[in-house]
Design goal:
This protein has about 550 residues and is mainly β. The chain has three domains: about 220 residues, Beta-galactosidase, Chain A, domain 5 (Distorted Sandwich); about 100 residues, Immunoglobulins (Immunoglobulin-like, Sandwich), CATH 2.60.40.10; about 190 residues, Galactose-binding domain-like (Jelly Rolls). It is built from three helices and 38 strands. A hairpin with a 7-residue loop joins β23 and β24. The chain starts with 13 loop residues before the first strand and ends in a 9-residue tail after the last strand.
Length: about 550
């Protein structure tokens, strides 16, 4: 409970925590009902999670996914004398670990993050006795930030987390901010903490397969029938939305294209893309099939917008009509059409529009700062990759020539500052060189710049004059997802449109200058998702 007497000492919330145990079920369920009432003051809710700290003498093997599992160092290895702190407290170089096999590795809990859509089961295995401890999250409806929001899982200590609300990989925009007297209530969970065991120690790793089996059972059982709170609706009290998503891009096809493998979801009404910053309501997401068809099930009653993200196309889809669901309803939307931003034919493009920088050049880590788990996968999760840029480009910045350069080899995955002294940094300006033989001097060209992440950065765009003032685009300081420091390949998505008058272009070679202008620290920077230059519109607006 909360009262004014504990203001400043206790979060102004009523918190109803519940634990559910069934006979012969090896584990327990946990959920909580958070409530902010009209008599409570304003405050910001940063983090809500359940944290388990396991027996450090028993649990040494951590499992996040099929490919991301390993024996882990101990918490003692991070202490002074055994560990050497790096650029921020979470990252520690193991210089004298208890187990010599970990010497020279970096330990950082952010190297083990997952996207919400993939964060369904993770945990630890003990080999003596052979026992597994697993955190299973059967639904993402109560998490914030949508399916691509990333968060922590398990890490050294040994620790396992069930994450409900955090600003990780998003920044302060995902803090839950309450005004004085704002009324709000939300059910977080239930999640399932599962235990398993096996008699043969040599088969201990098979406990992971059993944990995945149990996870699938929990997913199929959602929404659970056992919660007694009136705030948790059962299956009969929820609704369904179905439809087919098509994409209309007349510069690619005369016919509408199926929005295949798209992420489609319901979230609080807002602008297109607002779901990735939404933090107070519930969200319900699914993926379309090869024909663009989708069915979203088990939706709580309420009012929502339908949003969509289609791989291969920039921008965000939003169904403009607010959808109101009632208990037991089944709403068919029929065919809905997303028309991604476009003003003219593609003259050239860099990257893949998939909200990630994974296709770009990711350098090998400094041999001093290696996590062995990522030597042959997810190279972007290695520590200190931002430092490699200045080593590759010690004096002059990146220059990319359209038609000659290869973005997989020649486009660094993050535009970061260059360190020029002790905690002193210099802004960087990248160049894109391209040719236009016949410039339409009276027309307008359009540059689309999609960012996969931004951390307190300012992007400035100029054409043919690196000192032009004002630039064609200055974003001002944007973002705070810290994706560069926290070993991610994306954070919050941004899309900018820059109009380039034909009069500023030259017949022949032209240069676009991309400047990241903020220089306070090493982690200020951006990751590009995709860049495209469009020519003036064709007369008939088609191919």
């Amino acid at each position: 409970m909360w009262s004014p007497e504990v203001q400043g000492e206790q979060a102004p919330l009523y918190i109803d925590r519940r634990f559910v145990v069934f006979r012969d079920v090896p584990g327990f369920y946990s959920y909580a009902i958070f409530e902010h009432t009209k008599d409570m003051p304003a405050f910001h809710l940063n983090t809500t999670r359940i944290a388990f700290m396991l027996n450090k003498e028993k649990f040494h093997y951590m499992v996040i996914t099929d490919d991301r599992q390993r024996f882990m160092p101990s918490a003692e290895d991070r202490l002074p004398g055994r560990g050497e702190p790096l650029a921020y407290p979470e990252a520690v170089l193991l210089v004298d670990p208890i187990e010599p096999e970990f010497k020279g590795e970096v330990d950082d809990k952010y190297q083990y993050s997952l996207e919400n859509k993939d964060n369904q089961v993770h945990g630890w295995i003990s080999f003596d006795p052979p026992v597994g401890f697993w955190q299973i999250t059967p639904s993402n409806e109560f998490r914030t930030g949508g399916p691509f929001k990333q968060d922590l899982t398990s890490h050294v200590n040994p620790t396992t987390l069930a994450i409900f609300l955090t600003s990780h990989y998003a920044g302060t925009e995902l803090l839950v901010k309450f005004e004085t007297g704002e009324e709000w209530k939300k059910v977080l969970g239930p999640v399932f903490t599962y235990f398993n065991s096996i008699s043969d120690k040599d088969m201990a790793l098979s406990l992971w397969d059993d944990a995945k089996r149990q996870m699938n059972e929990e997913v199929q059982s959602w929404p659970y029938s056992f919660p007694t709170s009136e705030e948790f609706p059962n299956c009969d009290q929820r609704g369904v939305v179905r439809g087919r998503l098509l994409v209309q891009d007349r510069y690619l096809s005369k016919e509408n294209l199926p929005g295949k493998a798209a992420s489609v979801g319901l979230a609080a009404p807002g602008d297109a893309g607002s779901w990735q910053r939404e933090n107070k309501g519930y969200q319900f997401w699914t993926m379309t099939d090869e024909d663009g068809c989708f069915v979203i099930k088990n939706i709580r009653a309420g009012s929502y917008n339908l949003y969509g993200v289609v791989p291969g196309f920039i921008g965000d889809y939003k169904y403009e009509v607010v959808i109101t669901l009632t208990e037991g309803c089944d709403i068919g939307l029929g065919e809905i059409v997303y028309e991604p931003p476009r003003d003219g034919p593609t003259l050239w493009e860099i990257g893949i529009p998939d909200r990630s920088a994974a296709e770009f050049y990711i350098p090998d880590p400094n041999p001093k700062y290696v996590n062995k788990l990522y030597l042959n996968q997810d190279k972007f999760r290695q520590y200190g990759l931002w430092e490699r840029y200045a080593e590759l480009y010690p004096e002059n910045d990146l220059v990319y020539t359209v038609g000659v350069s290869d973005y997989q080899k020649d486009w660094f995955f993050a535009q970061v500052n260059r360190e020029i002294g002790d905690k002193a940094y210099q802004s960087t300006t990248w160049q894109i060189k391209f040719k236009i033989d016949n410039v339409d001097q009276g027309g307008s060209y359009t540059l689309r710049v999609a960012l996969a992440a931004s951390n307190h950065a300012e992007l400035q765009v100029r054409i043919n004059d690196p000192t032009a003032d004002p630039p064609l685009l200055s974003t001002g300081e944007i973002g705070g997802d810290n994706a560069i420091a926290r070993h991610a390949i994306h954070g919050i998505y941004w899309l900018f449109t820059v109009t380039i008058p034909g009069s500023l272009l030259l017949g022949g070679e032209n240069t676009i200058f991309l400047t990241q202008a903020k220089t306070a620290n090493a982690f200020q920077g951006i990751m590009y998702d995709y860049i495209r230059l469009e020519g003036p519109s064709c007369q008939n607006g088609n191919l």
